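Q: Could you write out the predicted structure for this multi-component system? I'm mainly interested in how the pieces pack against one another.
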Amino acid sequence: MKQHTHRFTVRTSGKGLVAITHPVTDWVAQTGLTTGLLTIWCPHTSCSLTVQENADPTVQEDIARFFEALVPEQGGRYIHSSEGPDDMPAHLRTMLTQSGLSIPVIDGEPALGTWQGLYLFEHRRAPHRREIVLHLLGEE
Amino acid sequence: MKQHTHRFTVRTSGKGLVAITHPVTDWVAQTGLTTGLLTIWCPHTSCSLTVQENADPTVQEDIARFFEALVPEQGGRYIHSSEGPDDMPAHLRTMLTQSGLSIPVIDGEPALGTWQGLYLFEHRRAPHRREIVLHLLGEE
Amino acid sequence: MKQHTHRFTVRTSGKGLVAITHPVTDWVAQTGLTTGLLTIWCPHTSCSLTVQENADPTVQEDIARFFEALVPEQGGRYIHSSEGPDDMPAHLRTMLTQSGLSIPVIDGEPALGTWQGLYLFEHRRAPHRREIVLHLLGEE
């Protein structure tokens, strides 16, 4: 049994989903491990991880609209507003999605379904550099 | 340290929770590993996993009613509607629950609490065959 | 590769977040493992786990207010009400957050970001003793 860790950076350009499937699966392939457990960790409190349909881009528009309605950015709604009107909604949207994902690796690939993509979900309006931590435990 | 993987199918009959605790714990017992980490992965984007009270069936009615209100199936609400009015709500309900669960295994069983049950949460109206991927890493 | 498990109790005093970062990171340090995967499991159906900003206490007030509005405690709203008006909302708030978290351990510490804290999120009004299960797999 061996383990590997890795960190990489995702540049976001405001709110929305950024696909990270390829950098993640490429790294898994590079480790040479074929069976194991992959963990993806997002060490931030105003962006998160999600698994989502990777086919139709309008899905992402619907996601954006849904989260704007579910966790509104609204003046006076939050006590914690010193870091901007999008900061507290960002924390809440992070709580409602995932900071980490652990996925079985089988035949050298994360066991994602045909339509599943891995995404960083940026909740802040301004562009950010976001770090992703990867951990893989398994056998060749 | 050893690892095992397994896949099994769950037949759903429309929206709602389907208990998967027994097929999962039975497989863990069959592996013979007594201490380790179990990961359950749901490789779909319109059903998900959840941990929920396993005692009172009315809990499941309340869950259904809550998610219908939180993520309505409503004509004209979503841009992505080509796969039916329940498809985009299914993606959103999946995002708000889990695609994967990792649970410590102690004394040969997942460390679930007395009232915790594992469920597949089907979000589509039509019956589906859903695959579940299991991974267990541990020692005898 | 070695593994360790541990259980500890958190006393809650009604609804809200209780910080558990220190008991978790202290136990990781005691195991002597420096690289691995930490899993935190909450074996209850009316409290959950969340990762949240650890800096400004008003964040916790906003979280409380948001979840009261998202999942109201309201007479007549839920069928499952025999265990009190806060019980069904507690199950739903648990579903919308996490029962488990798996975090890479690097250099002897969970790879949390600067602002990330680990919290038990109590959803019941009455004080409770809550158990947390820890599992760590890794190398010295």
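A: Regarding packing and overall arrangement: Chain A is about 25% helix and 40% strand.
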